[in-house]
Amino acid sequence: MILLKILKGKAELKQANLFFIELLVVLLFFSFSIAVILKIFAVADYKQNASTLTEKSIICAQSIAEVFSVNGDIADTSAFVFGEEAEVTDGVCCIMLDDDMKPSADGKNELIMTEKHDETSAGVLSSLNIAFSRNESEIYALECYAYISSDGGAADE
Amino acid sequence: MSNKSKGISGRGLGVGYVTLIMLFAVICLTVLSVLSYQAARANEKLNEKSSVFCTEYYAADGRAKMILSELDNDALEAHSSGFFAESFAELCNEYENISVRQVPEGFSVSFSEPLNERLKLSVNVVFYNTPVESRYSINEWKTISADTEASDAPLGVWDGSPLG
């Protein structure tokens, strides 16, 4: 009777040992696979954030280009698009934007607009170079033009 | 009756259950992570195409505006000469890829700038003999298919007439 009890105890102990060994192996395999899976999630999140920022930059650049093509002036364009007139120095304007492409002194995105004018007797052909950058790496750049005739007509009517 | 004859196992979970649960969790998480990555990658590709198209459009738009500024300059020159029709027609002959047609109010000038392989920017401007508010007005400034043969070909839609 006592021998039977001892044998039963030994079998249960064997089963418990097997269970813990299996648990250890499973945890090891799980930790390796979770490390890889989390890396994939992190890369996907980074790509999604980057493409969202690019998309917003493209939309903002298009808005600026469309307004500029009508008025041909960088100060008026920034006042219309951003609601505040930006400082222009030698045809260059720099605005800090937040992640929603709205002007913000603490914004991490930089918008640099460079304007050039080519005046003729018939009118003024202006070009505007729009460049979005973040942490000194370019997100999106666009060059657009505006032609304002001397009789007051704009090329985009 | 003993536990063995009843078929009851020992204390706790049996061997293998934890492995199965872990395998299931890893498979679910792997599928989820791969799908997330694919969605982000697809969005990135779409944005790349969008940015390329936007750049191409504004490049063609800029070239078209340069041509318009040159034509406007020619129109001003033609007006100042006193003989607008002859002067303007002569000046327009210097351009290679524009078509000029005389209309009652002046001259209708058409030209196009290629955007990419499939699209082009089509422009039609009328320059007035006697400018009132402006020397010109823009009738058309739009993107059209570059394949004009396909756009001119009829679709062959049945109009309801009896067959045969």
Explain the layout of strands and helices.
The complex is a heterodimer of chains A (157) and B (164).
Chain A: H1 2-71, H2 74-82, E1 88-89, E2 92-97, E3 109-119, E4 123-134, E5 137-149
Antiparallel strand pairs in A: 1-2, 2-3, 3-4, 4-5
Helix pairs in contact in A: 1-2
Chain B: H1 3-6, H2 17-81, H3 84-92, E1 98-103, E2 106-114, E3 119-128, E4 136-145, H4 148-152
Antiparallel strand pairs in B: 1-2, 2-3, 3-4
Helix pairs in contact in B: 2-3
Q: Features of this protein?
A:
heterodimer, A: 157 residues, alpha+beta, 5-stranded antiparallel sheet, 2 helices, 50% helix, rod-shaped, B: 164 residues, 4-stranded antiparallel sheet, 4 helices, 4 strands, disordered N terminus
pLDDT below 50 for ≥5 consecutive residues: which ranges of chain B?
Answer: 1-10
Number of helices of chain A: 2
Helix content of chain A: 40-55%
Helix content of chain B: 40-55%
Termini gap of chain A: 104 Å
Which class best fits the helix and strand makeup of chain A? alpha+beta
Biggest sheet layout of chain B: 4 strands, antiparallel
Quickly give the structural class of chain B.
alpha+beta
Number of domains of chain A: 1
The average pLDDT score of chain B comes to: 86
Number of helices of chain B: 4
Low-confidence stretches of chain A: none
**Beta-strand residue fraction of chain A:** 25-35%
Lateral strand order in the biggest sheet of chain B: 1-2-3-4
Apparent shape of chain A:
rod-shaped
Count of individual beta strands of chain A: 5
CA-to-CA gap between the ends of chain B? 92 Å
Q: Biggest sheet of chain A, open or closed, and with what strands and sense? A: 5 strands, antiparallel
Largest interface: A-B, 53 and 50 residues
